[in-house]
Amino acid sequence: MASPSALPQPSRQTTSTPTGSIASLSSTTRLKPSRRVPDVQRVSSSSPSKLRSPTRPSLGGNAQSNSSSSISTLRSTSGVFTSNGPDRSLRRTVSIASFPQPPKASSRLSTASVSSSTSQVTSNMRGSPDLVKSATGTARKQSRLSTATTSSNRGSKASSLHNNSNDGKSVPNLAGIKDYEGQISLSSPPQSRSSSAQGSYSTSATTFDENEDAEHRGSDTKDSAISGKKGIRSKEVKGNVIVSVRVRPDNGAQEGSRADGEWMVDGRRSLIGFKGKENYDYFYDNVFAAHDNNSKVYDSSAKRLVRRVMEGYHGTVFAYGMTGTGKTFSMQGTASSPGVIPLAITDIFSYIRETPHREFLLRVSYLEIYNEKIHDLLSASTANGPGAPAQEEIKLREDSKRGVYATPLKEEIVQSPTQLLRVIARGDHARRTGSTQFNARSSRSHAVVQIVVESRERAPGGNSSQDKRLAFVPGGVRVSTLSLIDLAGSERAAENKERRTEGAHINKSLLTLGTVIARLSESKEKIANSTDKESKHLPYRDSKLTRLLQPALSGNSLVSILCTIQIGSSGSAAPANTHTNETLNTLKFAARAKNNIVSHAKRAEEAFGGGMIQSLRAQLENQSKTQVENESKVEEERIEKEADARHEEQMLEMQLARTALKERIEHLNRLILSSKSTGVNSNGATAALDRLSRLSGTLESGTRSLRSSASQSTLGANSLRRTVSQLSLNSGDQSSGYHAQRSSLLPEDDDDTIGEYGDGNASLQMQVTALQADLVDKNRYISTLERRLLQARRSSHSRMSMGISQLKNGEDADVITLLREKDMEITELRIQLDDKDRMLTALRSAARQRDIAQMPLDASVSDKQPGNRNSEGNSSSPASAPAGDSSSLVNPISPASEKEKDAKRKSTDEVSRMLDEMIQDRVENGHLVKSSRGSIRILSGTTNQRESIGTVPALSGTVDSRGSITESSKADA
Ligand SMILES: Nc1ncnc2c1ncn2[C@@H]1O[C@H](COP(=O)(O)OP(=O)(O)OP(=O)(O)O)[C@@H](O)[C@H]1O
């Protein structure tokens, strides 16, 4: 947002125009010293023309004395001419006074003198309308100085002038013609604006300070002098409309050429007179002679209005006149002589700089009305030329707040004069121009620059720019608009068809403008207090131009109209008389405007919650909010993605870990199996159980759920445990039946699995050590797995606690379920590990028991049969014992050990039977397939959870019915 502090403070001296079309804002051209002296000189040496000289001599001694006395009085009062010379102070003082100013105490003396002399003049002029007009003009100037003079002026002659000009007709020069004749040229010296006498301004425009009431008093005197319509306009509205006429230099004019009458331009008295078939004298607020430059034109006709706009009034400045008479020259100016627009821009920024207690925001739009269509001169499509895509049609709308406005129209916020000038230069570039007979680069459209000024009070105190930005009085925003309009020129003599079409539109809209202004007088009084409704009968809607100007013309705005004329017709294709008629029409238009337009412009109220400043502030806040939201959203998404990626990675790791763990378990199973096959499991029953265990492990690696696999695994482990508990009983049994069973159960490819222990010679201790090592391995692995799971959990938790609540409920549930599954998996793996532990313990105790059992047996055998002592090793190593030897060795044993052996055999049979049942069960359930050779294989893909789980109770039931084994299995379960 363009905060006030952000508005750069332009340097008047350095401001330059971005393009050649807009003049440099350098003040040097404006402040040229001694400008007025040459002006005066130029008056006497101005080029010959058909201009009459000022009528001073014709006024007679009184008038002359009046004139001179008034001037001298002004000078002495202001103290500017005498003390400072025509310097900057003077110029500015004069310029500000273009709007009537209140009298000051210091001016009273001079006022009295002016008053008396004016009275004298007017009384001397009675009976001569021409003189009356001239004198009234002088009196009008005088009257600005004091209200005291006003009454006499009003009462005397003003009405006689303005009764005629009111309806657009000027008073013809019926008398005093002689007085004008013989005068070659006229270029009155720049008039000394009465404000200088009032001394109501400081010498610098930048310390402008005036009293509004006083100003209105001043304006009252001025207007009453010019219009003589006292009582019609209220004091408040007079002076709000300034009408000026500017005469373009007629460089090509030659004496006697194309003359159609005699003209008199008296800038000092703001008078233009014409002597021809009819004689006219027109008085305006300002008349600028050919030698007056743009700076003077701006100072006198627009400067004050611009500053009032900055204070909160709406203001409209427009240039009206025939083609080629200098409208664009006056509004835009040149590089060396900037016009109203660049000078206004400079002033706007000066004002901002001088008003630090308020915050300002400026936005600018630029449109043209060409052939009754509105074009946005700042839109890209306009700037890009005819090839660019057509822009959306711009329409005029009206609302109570904004009045009549064009939409959609691009508005640019500007923060410096350079920026503003650049924007306008861009629009100028896009504006349509063409060559007419009277102007090589004629504007073919009405161009409207609109600068919207928003301001509001700052809180006192804040020194830093930061403070200034933040500290505001909780007041409202004041919005005012400055419209600077360069109308297209009327042209009657177009030859080219395109020019004619354009000309028709231009003329039609100008005609409507003239009609509206003429009609304003009909209901002037009404309009002074009018509501919008009452003014609706005026044909504002007949043209886009009048519709756009409606708020200004109907009194809501300060208005300054600059009418341009060219007195000579040199350069014009039109015949001299046509040209003169056109010029007279312009003058009539100006006179009507002066008399008919009533402005009761009021300073805009400070609106709360409205205005661009506030909406921009709100927008900015919203934007930053949205930005923060977006950033946090992006950040959250990034975190979420990272978390997802981490999560996936962890899942993958866990999956791998699980697979690896299973492999390890399988491997462990194999080791157990091999240990069974060699030592503890020498009876073969264990081998069968081991198969089962292995089977469960294999099944486990299938596609069934973790739970089912765990059940299987547990089942295998339980079976093993049971087997181990039985083995503790059968440790000494080495019946060949087990070998037979073992061979029938072992798949062929298991021969390798038996591995190093397969020879049956490896010691049990070695197997136990291997198992232990494996166990340690497994434990390590599980702890790693646990650690990872913990990490995964932590990151999940942190994700949740970080408020990445964008995760859908389903996702949460998924994660939780997954975690639970992993927990279960770990638990189950633990159980398996415990099983293995127990199994190992069982194996150890079995080994120990076997050792113990063998020791007394060996001892008794050796005791009773000393010759057989060497057979001990054979009994413990069936592989090394000769076939059938075992029975022969057993025979000599005592009846007690026979009994013991019997019991062992029985229990071994029992285990075998149990295993058979289990295997049979599995075969029936389709988990195992019996090969033709009698061996059993695992059927791949037979992983039916229901079946596998179902086997457990069946097995349990079987085992339950069997004494000590039942107890052990129950405990395991
Ligand atoms: N006061 C002046 N002093 C010097 N040159 C002037 C003055 N007024 C106008 N001119 C010159 O006269 C020519 C026509 O002026 P300009 O284009 O401003 O006329 P216009 O009224 O805008 O015409 P149109 O309506 O055709 O656009 C330009 O070359 C301009 O420089």
Automatic annotation (TrEMBL):
One of its GO terms (cellular component) is microtubule. Residues 214-223, 897-917 have a biased composition (Basic and acidic residues). It comes from the Eukaryota. Keywords: ATP-binding, Cell cycle, Cell division, Coiled coil, Cytoplasm, Cytoskeleton, Microtubule, Mitosis, Motor protein, Nucleotide-binding. GO terms for molecular function: ATP binding; microtubule binding; microtubule motor activity. SUPFAM superfamilies: P-loop containing nucleoside triphosphate hydrolases. InterPro entries: Kinesin-like_fam, Kinesin_motor_CS, Kinesin_motor_dom, Kinesin_motor_dom_sf, P-loop_NTPase. Residues 20-31, 135-168, 729-744, 958-973 have a biased composition (Polar residues). Residues 8-19, 40-78, 105-123, 185-206, 870-888 have a biased composition (Low complexity). ATP binds at residues 321-328. The keyword Coiled coil applies. Its main location: cytoplasm. The keyword Hydrolase does not apply. It is found in: Cytoplasm, Cytoskeleton. Residues 1-230, 700-719, 729-760, 851-917, 940-973 are annotated as: Disordered. Residues 240-596 form the Kinesin motor domain. GO terms for biological process: cell division; microtubule-based movement. Belongs to the TRAFAC class myosin-kinesin ATPase superfamily. Kinesin family. PANTHER family: CENTROMERE PROTEIN E (PTHR47968), CENTROMERE-ASSOCIATED PROTEIN E (PTHR47968:SF75). Required for assembly of the mitotic spindle. This is Kinesin-like protein. It comes from Talaromyces proteolyticus.
